[in-house]
Amino acid sequence: MSEQKGHFESGRWVEDREPEAAPETPETPKAPQVDEMVHEASTSVKKAIDDVVHLGKHLFGTKEGRDHLEKKVRAAGAELEKAIGEVAETARRNLERNG
């Protein structure tokens, strides 16, 4: 004869129920270790620096790169010239109106 596990509650014997098995959940992936994260960030920064150095060598060391820089500088110069012209025109109009 087997005895049922239980306890007294308000003067009565109450049998304990077998705990139901918890539903299985998929194992959560482990959080990356700090050392791994530092290594990944370091590798990423190193690659970014290498890319910038490579770009600099290409821009200054090849005809194609120098042509690209010249084109960008000329465009920036044109924008600056346009802005100076607009400021001068606004100043001229203000002088005529107030003068």
Task: Give me a quick take on this structure.
With 99 residues, the protein is mostly helical. It has helices at 34-61, 63-98, and strands spanning 6-9, 12-15.
Features:
mainly alpha, elongated, 99 residues, 8% strand, 65% helix, 2 strands
Structural class: mainly alpha
Strand order of the largest sheet: 1-2
- Tell me the overall shape: elongated
Give the beta-strand count: 2
Describe the structure.
With 99 residues, the chain is mainly alpha-helical. Helix content is 65%, strand content 8%. It contains two helices and two strands. It has helices at 34-61, 63-98, and strands at residues 6-9, 12-15. It has a two-stranded antiparallel ribbon.
Blueprint (SSEs and pairs):
Elements (H helix, E strand, L loop, with lengths): L5 E4 L2 E4 L18 H28 L1 H36 L1
Antiparallel strand pairs: 1-2
Helix pairs in contact: 1-2
